[in-house]
Amino acid sequence: MQLGSCRPPLNWRSLRFGRAHSVEAIDPNGAQAQDGWTVKYTLIFPFLVMFLATAAPPLHAQAVDCSSPKSSAEETECARQELALAEADLKQAFADALHPYSARTEKEVPTLPRSDVREEGKYKAKTRRALIASQEAFIRYRAAACDSVAKMYEGGSITEFAVNSCQAALTRDRSKFLRDYFEAK
After folding, report:
1. pLDDT at 162 over 50
2. Global confidence as pTM
3. CATH number at 66-181
4. What is the enclosing helix (H) or strand (E) of 26?
5. Which among 122, 63, 97, 107 is positioned nearest to 175, based on CA atoms?
């Protein structure tokens, strides 16, 4: 094919797969429109760009000084980092709160009468189910509460910052609750 010739638009229906996984684009008349090399890179390039854009960490995320953010983008990044820390803390507090209500191993079973062991098992299972249900309810509540904050700032550049801050505050409160009432570490 000569340079400057008119090529038909490339789409999935105009592809022909040949031997050794080579790909050629054909025009509606059946003539070869583009060579396999061009088609491969025409198809791969957008996916490669999307992968690199999503897989690489943002450059500004590493250099943000959260003690004194200088822009709304930096404030948003700091709120995002604060939320990530709060969620990690909540995950640990929840695991610590659930631990006493998990099944005991053979080494931990004290010498109790069989009926007491059965009652203890029922109590632990009931408490564990209630704790898991309350955590699920908290997640739904946090989403709804912070969604109302998002509606308040809808369309503004501060929306993401406000939502992340809302979620971080509620998450810290939940972690404190779990530690206070369930004696989590």
Report:
1. yes
2. 0.61
3. 1.20.1270.180
4. strand 23-26
5. 97
